[in-house]
Design goal:
Blueprint (H helix, E strand, L loop, with lengths): L1 H27 L9 E4 L8 E6 L3 E6 L4 E5 L13 E5 L5 E3 L2 H9 L6 E4 L9 H9 L3 E2 L8 H6 L4 E4 L7 H9 L4 E3 L8 H5 L2 H8 L2 H25 L5 E8 L5 E4 L4 H8 L2 E3 L12 E4 L1 H8 L4 E4 L10 H7 L7 H5 L2 E4 L10 H12 L9 E3 L3
Parallel strand pairs: 4-5, 6-7, 6-9, 7-8, 9-10, 11-13, 11-15, 15-16
Antiparallel strand pairs: 1-2, 2-3, 3-4, 11-12, 12-14, 16-17
């Protein structure tokens, strides 16, 4: 009986290991490419939704989890013969990119490759990434329509070599078909699917591969995440059961409260930074990262939160307590309001993907009693 139980346990463990192995392979895809010699794979610390395999001669295969594969061809090399038909080709130097994903732009700018982003899916007035805004103002970057309604004529006339979309494009699959039928490969980046906030930032390494800036991307990522890694490590060591509670929210035009779901990357940042997100079990069936609740429900859950962080991304930044209370008089009764522990994000928070590490450090500073303005968050005045 004991032997049978032992064998069952071993078989169960083998099944789990095989499943995990299969999951990793599905991200990276088949490493065998006709005519190329595999050399190794990129080491990733946090990201799980893309992989990069390297081949002799400078070739690199980018695989998006549950998505497409892209073979990046060095400038002086040819496309291998007899390649799998599902692999899309990107030739260096990569130029005239149509950038629809706003979060990706910041990562590209961090490695100084914004000069090769010729077309934008965002208008100048809606950019908070300075380099993107400046490029559009100068005419070096042109508005080519939003994800669901691109300006195909402009895209073709500018000899676009790649369209970088976010997952919203899956709502308009006909756009992918039309772009690719005209010779423009479409890369749907899935950084928003990363469970670890710093996994979103690590996508900079993928853009490093696209533009031939692998070393610069890795160096930038390592330097930018150094302080956040220290914070995360210290929080893990402390194992504090009495964490300060934090609510992250904004109030909609109809008086409802928009909050992040429990599994969202913002709530994850709060936890990594040493805080405790007040909405521990807030989920629903849709794929959105936020949900609206009535002020009464928000009051019941967040009234005694130690800190409030107001999300300025939708309706603009707040600077005073009076401006906050104008949104709802019920906020007067909140512990954080009474104690003066209310903060507001800058509008640039969600476009500046490279700021995720700084945000973790900022939130850690808040829950440890910071009083002055921080990198991405400022304190409301009385």
């Amino acid at each position: 009986m004991k032997r049978k139980l032992f064998l069952m346990i071993i078989l169960g463990m083998m099944t789990i290991l095989c499943a995990c192995s299969a999951q990793r392979v599905s991200t990276s895809g088949d490493k065998n490419i006709s005519g190329l010699e595999y050399e190794g794979s990129m080491k990733l610390k946090y990201a799980q939704h893309f992989a990069v395999d390297y081949y002799k001669g400078g070739y690199a295969l980018i695989s998006i989890k549950d998505g497409d594969r892209f073979l990046v061809i060095p400038e002086d090399k040819d496309v291998p013969e007899n390649m799998d038909s599902d692999i899309k080709i990107i030739k260096r130097p990569l130029k005239n990119v149509y950038m629809v994903s706003t979060s990706a732009m910041d990562l590209v700018c961090a490695i100084d490759e914004e000069k090769n982003i010729r077309l934008s899916g965002t208008k100048e007035k809606d950019w908070y990434v300075d380099k993107a805004k400046e490029a559009m103002k100068s005419g070096n970057m042109l508005y080519a329509g939003k994800y669901s309604a691109p300006d195909y004529e402009l895209i073709l006339s500018e000899k676009c070599e790649l369209a970088v979309e976010n997952t919203m494009i899956y709502h308009s699959p006909e756009v992918i078909d039309k772009l690719e039928n005209t010779g423009v490969p479409v890369l749907v980046e899935k950084s928003s699917y990363e469970s670890h906030p710093l996994g979103r930032m690590e996508w900079i390494k993928m853009y490093g591969v696209l533009f031939g800036k692998e070393d610069e991307a890795e160096k930038y990522f390592d330097e930018k995440t150094k302080e956040a890694d220290k914070v995360i490590e210290n929080v893990e060591k402390e194992q504090n059961d009495n964490r300060k509670t934090v609510a992250f929210f904004y109030i909609t035009s109809n008086g409802a409260v928009s909050v992040r779901k429990s599994g969202d990357y913002v709530s994850k940042m709060i936890e990594l930074a040493g805080g405790e997100y007040v909405f521990k079990n807030l989920t629903d069936e849709n794929a959105l990262s936020t949900m609206n609740i009535q002020m009464e429900e928000f009051y019941a859950t967040a009234k005694d939160a130690d800190y409030l962080i107001y999300n300025s991304a939708i309706d603009g930044e707040l600077y005073t307590m009076d401006e906050l209370i104008e949104k709802s008089s019920m906020l007067k009764d909140f512990k954080a309001v009474k104690n003066g522990d209310v903060w507001c994000t800058g509008k640039n928070m969600f476009q500046e993907t490279t700021g995720i590490a700084d945000m973790i450090v900022d939130i850690n500073s808040i829950v440890n009693g910071a009083d002055g303005d921080l990198e991405y968050i400022h304190k409301l005045t009385e």
